[in-house]
Design a protein that fits this description.
Elements (H helix, E strand, L loop, with lengths): L7 H13 L1 H17 L23
Length: 61
Amino acid sequence: MYTLDITTQAKKDIAYLKKNGGKAVTNKIEKLLVELIEHPKTGTEQVEQLKGNRQGNGQEE
């Protein structure tokens, strides 16, 4: 199992969407976060490995 580091801004955005987005949006967010933690390299959507020298750390080069 993996861990998921969520930035302060992402936490604020998620809280906003949960408050204003309704039940469907809340369910999608929760499903996505659980999926990222359980199996980030596979998934229900089209998963593609990063190209080049990218490490997947979320930082722009």
